[in-house]
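Help needed: design a sequence for this.
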């Protein structure tokens, strides 16, 4: 089982020393960040429900705090955080669907598809076992 939340993070680089400066047009960079998705039913597996809404980061400030923590950089340097996708293999996706079905009332959804759409939108990609990017 393998899955990862993928985010695009835009941030500003800040020199660590006062005698160093950066060209303003080159101080901003964008990275693609992957965060391992906890196994469904285990601690932290509701990350998508608590963080995303319709495939977007629900609380921008919280998203910035998370990205800063994950990257080990000051929060003030984070310009934006965009959720790209939950990239998962079929085994993880099956387990995720089963875990959601077991706690459907938690999601305030009519069925599993409704819950997935409500929190992930169309940002869910199931890969085959030979795709090693998860």
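Sure. Designed sequence:
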């Amino acid at each position: 089982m393998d899955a990862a939340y993928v985010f695009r993070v835009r941030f500003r680089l800040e020199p660590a020393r006062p005698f160093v400066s950066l060209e303003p047009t080159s101080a901003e960079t964008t990275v693609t960040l992957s965060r391992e998705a906890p196994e469904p039913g285990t601690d932290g597996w509701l990350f998508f429900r608590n963080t995303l809404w319709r495939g977007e980061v629900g609380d921008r400030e919280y998203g910035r705090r998370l990205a800063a923590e994950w990257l080990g950089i000051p929060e003030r340097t984070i310009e934006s955080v965009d959720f790209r996708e939950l990239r998962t293999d079929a085994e993880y996706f099956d387990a995720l669907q089963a875990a959601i079905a077991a706690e459907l009332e938690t999601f305030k959804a009519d069925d599993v598809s409704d819950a997935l759409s409500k929190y992930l939108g169309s940002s869910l990609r199931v890969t085959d076992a030979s795709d090693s990017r998860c």
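The chain has a mean pLDDT of 92.
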